[in-house]
UniProtKB/TrEMBL annotation, chain A:
Keyword Electron transport: no
Span of domain ABC transmembrane type-1: 88-294
Organism: Aminobacter niigataensis
Chain segments annotated as transmembrane: 20-47, 94-114, 123-147, 174-194, 229-253, 273-295
Location in the cell: Cell membrane
Protein name as it appears in the record: Spermidine/putrescine transport system permease protein
Keyword Cell membrane: yes
Annotated SUPFAM superfamilies: MetI-like (SSF161098)
From TrEMBL, chain B:
Localization per Swiss-Prot or TrEMBL: Periplasm
Keywords: Periplasm, Signal, Transport
Native species: Aminobacter niigataensis
Range of residues in the leader sequence: 1-23
Domain of life of the source: Bacteria
UniProt xrefs under CDD domains: PBP2_PotD_PotF_like_3
Classification of source organism: Bacteria, Pseudomonadati, Pseudomonadota, Alphaproteobacteria, Hyphomicrobiales
Protein name as catalogued: Putrescine-binding periplasmic protein
């Protein structure tokens, strides 16, 4: 006869088995759908480019070498691939700026919503999600209509007599930033709101009672407690921003490549799929490392509060 | 219901089903965007009881890549002359022998035996054009028949010039500008090309395809462009003119080909033959605003096209044009490097 402990042990084992069994379909899908294509990308990065796109099944590290080094086409010397670095740096800079800008705009927005009476919060949240109903491309073109030379802003300013020449906004870095902030703002507001909603505002009041200034309250009480929301929001904005393709090409004029355009070039007119594959993996690895460092550095002190 | 009306009903039903069967014929066209006349499709559909579906691509490379992968479901595509030898060599095309088709007699003599498809065993002319510059002459009064508009931009146009980012077109223009031969792999020439491009870029405002809208709205005052595109711009704004650069410009031609794995081969062949009919070719030209290489189509074309300087290359400029060839893969690799350097 089995003892109670044994029965419990068996039940536990069954429970674990069931959990695995039930989550197996999802795990298999994730494994196949996420790692399958990635493995193909990895494999292709070690092959030889075909003359007209595609790859030839011959092992080569040329793709990886040319991610980091370039052979000068004029004097045949190998040197560091400065063009790739410049392009990567531009994407990175823009992604960081977009993340910071959405945080600056998103934080007060989320705070505003979280401090509304409970029954009206849903309406505010609903308003934030409205832009998601429209396709990204259409939203980007809407921004273009607003800021172009004969767009809404310039026409209005000229008609009001404030300026007599249109201000060149389209095709500048300013235009790209406006587009990215507009497009990614909800991705920042929603997670921020989720953590602010849980914030105990009695702590804020206590802070004021103890003669904290508004800045001190924000810095010492609110910000540490919504830190998980800041992290989640920043990740959600940063990752699509570093791979942004549509917004920079529509609003920036496509004069300066983003990393995504560089990868696209290799699969299109450049006909160098292995280099494209190697570039994709490189940017993924860099983003992953950057995120790990970021999460580790920002979430460490969380336990002290809350 | 008596027997007679019954048999009539059955007969009608049978008739209906047979006409349905013939309407089930399909043709899947894979084409550049905004490049096929809806009226002409309708005519083809009605004439041959075929349902036509059109899917867009944005570049020769996209089309080539997709068709090479297989499983695309397309019957017909319109690659440019520089790509047709690749399509043939890669075994993607069906040898439909348009040269033996009924309407082949209408193809203009100079397009009957092109270098990219000797004897026209695969392809039928779709559209012919040139690459040059479009300039809004309200803002620049000087000579527009030069690549200087793009590569040595006059002060009035600085910061207002767009370049259509077709790598091969831009490279060809720049090579001609420095006095080289097309598809050159000569490092001396390419070094000059790179220097010219890198020096010219700060004067450009954008590198975009969407010139018809942007020239019209005044976002660009000049652009490198295809002739039919500039014709559309001029019809909207008479100040916009097309220049044929004296340094050398390219003639190009897009052509109707049938894919080897096409499911509707007969309909695709009918379509090739259909496109060589002057009236149909003219209908298409009236839409995309390019010439078509079919003799006799002029008399069906809109009046604003038959005399348009964008379509009818003025005699004085003809000598500066050349048909663009397919460059060798290793040369293309060099061009890609210069292109990356330019856009970094």
């Amino acid at each position: 006869m089995a003892t109670a402990a044994e029965i419990e042990k068996q039940a536990e084992a069954r429970e674990v088995r069931n959990r695995w069994f039930l989550s197996a379909p999802a795990l298999i899908i994730i494994l196949l759908a996420a790692s399958g294509p990635l493995l193909i990308v990895l494999l292709y990065s070690f092959l030889t480019p075909g003359p007209y796109g595609d790859v030839v099944w011959k092992f080569s590290t040329e793709g990886w070498v040319s991610v980091f080094l370039e052979r000068d086409i004029f004097d045949d010397t190998l040197s560091f691939a400065g063009a790739h670095l410049t392009i990567f740096w531009r994407s990175l800079k823009l992604a960081i700026m977009a993340t910071v800008a959405t945080l600056i705009f998103g934080f007060p927005t989320a705070y505003f919503i979280a401090t509304r009476p409970e029954r009206t919060r849903d309406i505010w949240l609903f308003l934030i999600t409205i832009p998601f109903w429209t396709n990204l491309l259409i939203r980007t073109f809407a921004v273009l209509q607003v800021i172009r030379n004969e767009g809404i802003i310039n026409t209005a300013l000229i008609n009001l007599g404030i300026i007599d020449q249109p201000i060149q906004m389209l095709y500048t870095d300013f235009a790209i930033m406006v587009g990215m902030v507009y497009v990614y703002l909800p991705l920042m507001v929603l997670p921020l709101y989720a953590s602010m909603e849980k914030l105990d505002f009695r702590l804020v009041e206590a802070g004021y009672d103890l003669y904290a200034t508004r800045w001190q309250v924000l810095k010492r009480i609110i910000f540490p407690m919504v830190r998980p929301g800041v992290i989640a929001g920043s990740i959600l904005v940063f990752i699509p921003a570093i791979g942004a393709y549509v917004t920079p090409s529509v609003l920036g004029g496509g004069k300066n490549m983003m990393f995504a355009n560089l990868i696209e070039l290799q699969f299109g007119q450049g006909r160098n799929w292995p280099l494209g594959a190697a570039l994709s993996i490189t940017v993924m690895a860099i983003v992953m490392v950057a995120l790990l460092v970021y999460v580790r550095n920002t979430s460490g002190s969380e336990a002290r509060h809350g | 219901m008596n027997l007679k009306s019954m048999s009539t009903a059955v007969g009608l039903a049978l008739l209906a089903s047979t006409s349905l069967a013939s309407a089930e014929g399909a043709l899947n066209i894979y084409n550049w965007g905004n490049y096929i006349s809806p009226d002409m499709i309708k005519k083809f559909e009605e004439k041959h009881s075929v349902k036509v579906t059109v899917t867009d691509y944005d570049s020769n490379d996209t089309a080539l890549a997709k068709v090479r992968q297989g499983g695309h479901g397309f019957d017909v595509a319109m690659p440019s002359q520089t790509y047709i030898p690749i399509w043939i060599q890669e075994g993607l095309l069906l040898e439909t022998r348009p040269d033996q088709m009924e309407n082949f007699k209408n193809v203009m003599p100079e397009w009957k035996d092109p270098a990219f498809d000797p004897g026209r065993h695969y392809s039928v002319p779709w559209a012919l054009g040139t690459v040059g510059v479009g300039v809004n002459t309200e803002f620049y009064k000087g000579d527009i028949n030069t690549w200087k508009i793009v590569f040595d931009t006059p002060d009035e146009l600085k910061g207002k010039v767009n370049v259509v980012p077709e790598m091969n077109d831009v490279m060809h223009a720049a090579i001609k500008y420095v006095g080289g031969e097309q598809c050159t792999g000569d490092k001396e020439v390419l070094k000059k090309v790179r220097d010219v491009l890198v020096a010219a870029k700060p004067n450009w405002i954008a590198m975009e395809y969407n010139t018809i809208d942007k020239m019209g709205a005044g976002d660009f005052k000049a652009t490198s462009d295809w002739n039919g595109s500039v014709l559309r711009q001029r019809l909207a704004n008479p100040a916009i003119h097309y220049g044929y650069p004296v340094e050398g410009f390219q003639f190009w031609s897009d052509n109707v080909v049938v894919l080897k794995d096409a499911a509707n081969v007969e309909n695709a062949k009918l379509f090739q033959n259909f496109m060589m009919d002057p009236e149909n070719a003219a209908m298409n030209s009236a839409f995309h605003r390019y010439a078509n290489g079919i003799a006799g189509s002029e008399k069906f074309m809109p009046a604003d096209m038959t005399s348009a300087p964008e379509v009818v290359v003025p005699e004085e400029f003809k000598k500066n044009g050349e048909i663009l060839q397919t460059c060798a893969p290793e040369v293309t690799a060099l061009y890609t490097k210069i292109w990356t350097e330019l856009q970094k």
